[in-house]
Amino acid sequence: MQKQKLRFYDIKAKKVFETDSYEVVEKSTARGPMLFAVASSPFTGVKVYRLLGRKK
C-alpha cells in the first residue's frame, strides 16, 4: 500500500514541497497524544513536521 502524498512547508527555505516519504510519529502534548508526519526537506535537509490530528 502506497502512502498518500502530503504537503509540507520548510520554514527555513520558505518553500512548500510534496512527498510520500515521511514517517508518522506520536507525540504527547498538553491536549493529549497527537500524530505528526515527519519528512526531510529537499531544500535544507531539516526535519519538517506536519500535524495529522489526534490519536484515536
Task: Walk me through the topology.
Layout: E1 6-10, E2 15-19, E3 23-29, E4 32-40, E5 47-54
Antiparallel strand pairs: 1-2, 3-4, 4-5
Structure description:
The chain has strands at 6-10, 15-19, 23-29, 32-40, 47-54. It has no helices and 5 strands. The two termini are 21 Å apart. It is an all-beta fold and 56 residues long. The protein has one domain. The chain is globular, with a radius of gyration of 12 Å.
Assign a percent range to the helix content.
Answer: under 10%
> What is the alpha-carbon Rg in Å?
12 Å
Which parts are unreliable, with pLDDT below 50 for 5 consecutive residues or more?
A: none
**How many domains make up the 3D coordinates?**
1
Beta-strand content: over 45%
Largest sheet: 3 strands, antiparallel
Strand segment count: 5
Helix-strand makeup class: mainly beta
What average pLDDT do the residues reach?
Answer: 95
Describe the structure concisely.
With 56 residues, the protein is an all-beta fold. The chain has one domain (6-54). The chain is built from no helices and 5 strands.
What labels would you give this structure?
mainly beta; 3-stranded antiparallel β-sheet; two-stranded antiparallel sheet; 61% strand; globular
